[in-house]
């Protein structure tokens, strides 16, 4: 499995889990801040980035077990875990299934609630039917990431669904995000998301939890932030205005400040 393992210090290790169509590079704006004081691990989930497809069919429980096994392999007995989108779903599953390995939990634009609704299920089915075309489109984006990210108009066209104002962000940073497009695990992971219910189990999460969202998220609606924070006992909630699906990239300084405060035992939620 491809991963980045960097940093030092006495702080609790930090595990970063990317979302659907993502890679460890989704955390490029966050890793340096935290690697100065603690060990930071950011992985490419199997089927994404430079990690191969898993031997078994992709599933949310399977990803949860894999992350737990990774921590054991790295000799990390307990970590603070930050998961984005699909990674948030996996992190929540980990917190339920293997609670001892999680110190604090941060769910960023987490998937797992709206995707279970009938309308979302129909969209997933339509995407499955168009799988080959969409896979080709993703691969095309990946091979042209530098050119597309260099042009503000192209950034809005290609990344406007995931981010509120991608045209204002650095081109090199966005090129790294586009390079993760077209990976083999996308559709199996999407199906796993749509078929594995978690709502009724969120009350089992005992770790201190922060729910982070963008108010203008077009992929996972902000209403889910309120549901996650309602269903998880004691969860805090932080909503970034003028922000889309990727707060850690769109608002890196504010995101890092809030994350550091929460991981230190504070209350950054508003």
Topology:
Layout: E1 3-7, E2 11-17, H1 31-35, E3 38-43, H2 60-73, E4 79-84, H3 86-97, E5 102-108, H4 118-129, H5 131-143, H6 145-149, H7 152-159, H8 171-178, H9 186-195, E6 209-214, H10 223-231, E7 236-240, H11 247-250, H12 252-263
Parallel strand pairs: 2-3, 2-4, 4-5, 5-6, 6-7
Antiparallel strand pairs: 1-3
Helix pairs in contact: 2-3, 4-9
3D structure, described in words:
This protein is an alpha/beta fold and 270 residues long. The chain has a single domain, classed as Alpha/Beta hydrolase fold, catalytic domain (Rossmann fold, 3-Layer(aba) Sandwich). It contains twelve helices and seven strands. Strands 1-3-2-4-5-6-7 form a seven-stranded mixed beta sheet, with helices on both faces. α2 crosses α3. The longest helix is centred in the N-terminal third of the chain and has 14 residues.
């Amino acid at each position: 499995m491809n991963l980045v393992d960097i940093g030092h210090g006495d702080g609790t290790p930090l595990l970063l889990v990317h979302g659907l169509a993502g890679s460890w590079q989704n955390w490029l704006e966050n890793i340096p801040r935290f690697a100065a004081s603690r060990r930071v691990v950011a992985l490419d989930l199997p089927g994404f980035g430079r990690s191969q497809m898993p031997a078994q069919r992709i599933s949310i429980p399977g990803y949860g077990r894999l992350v737990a096994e990774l921590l054991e392999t790295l000799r990390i007995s307990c970590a603070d875990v930050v998961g984005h989108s699909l990674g948030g779903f996996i992190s929540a599953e980990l917190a339920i299934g293997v609670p001892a390995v999680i110190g604090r939990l941060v769910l960023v634009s987490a998937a797992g609630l709206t995707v279970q609704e009938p309308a979302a299920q129909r969209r997933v089915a339509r995407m499955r039917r168009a799988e080959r075309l969409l896979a080709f489109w993703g691969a095309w984006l990946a091979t042209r990431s530098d050119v597309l990210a260099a042009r503000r108009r192209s950034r809005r066209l290609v990344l406007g669904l995931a981010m509120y104002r991608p045209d204002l962000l650095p081109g090199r940073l966005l090129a790294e995000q586009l390079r993760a497009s077209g990976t083999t695990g996308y559709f199996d992971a999407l199906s796993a998301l749509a078929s594995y219910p978690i709502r009724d189990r969120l009350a089992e999460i005992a770790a201190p939890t922060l729910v982070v969202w963008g108010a203008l998220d077009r992929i996972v609606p902000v209403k889910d932030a309120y549901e996650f924070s309602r269903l998880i006992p004691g969860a805090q909630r932080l909503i970034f205005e003028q922000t889309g699906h990727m707060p850690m990239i769109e608002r890196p300084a504010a995101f890092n400040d809030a994350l550091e405060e929460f991981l230190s035992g504070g209350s950054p939620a508003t």
